[in-house]
Design brief:
The structure is a single chain. The protein has 107 residues and is mainly alpha-helical. It has two domains: 1-39, no CATH class; 53-107, no CATH class. 78% of the residues lie in helices and 4% in strands. It has helices at 2-27, 32-38, 41-55, 68-83, 86-104, and strands at residues 56-57, 60-61. Strands 1-2 form a two-stranded antiparallel ribbon. A hairpin with a 2-residue loop joins strand 1 and strand 2. Helix 4 (68-83) packs antiparallel against helix 5. The longest helix has 26 residues, at 2-27. The chain is extended. It starts with a helix and ends with a helix.
Length: 107
């Protein structure tokens, strides 16, 4: 029962903080430069969340061709750029990441 109350409380706080801002912004016409800038927010957040996982290992920078996360990310980025196919991008990036983990962890 405590867990349910915790989840409901967190949902209420999250909703209570975000809804007034979204309701207000939904009624205001934002200038076009701001709307263009806001389109980059999801990409910026994704980069901010994923960059440490790709470039840092064990608290230290790990920029190398032996870094499975970095190589998988680069390959996935190239596949996404060339094909614009989400499932193929994810599958290729994960396949490269897993293959490198299997290949380079046997050392």
């Amino acid at each position: 029962m405590k867990e349910l109350l915790l989840v409901v409380g967190m949902a209420a706080v999250t909703f209570g903080v975000r809804y007034p801002v979204l309701a207000l912004l939904g009624r205001i016409d934002m200038p076009e430069p701001i709307m263009r800038a806001l389109r980059f927010v999801p990409v910026a957040v994704l980069c901010a969340l994923s960059a440490p996982m790709v470039f840092i290992d064990g608290g230290d920078w790990f920029i190398s061709v032996y870094n499975p996360a970095l190589v998988g990310s680069v390959v996935a980025g190239l596949v996404a750029w060339k094909t614009r196919h989400l499932l193929l991008t994810i599958a290729t990036g994960m396949a490269v990441f897993i293959a490198m983990r299997l290949f380079f962890s046997a050392g």
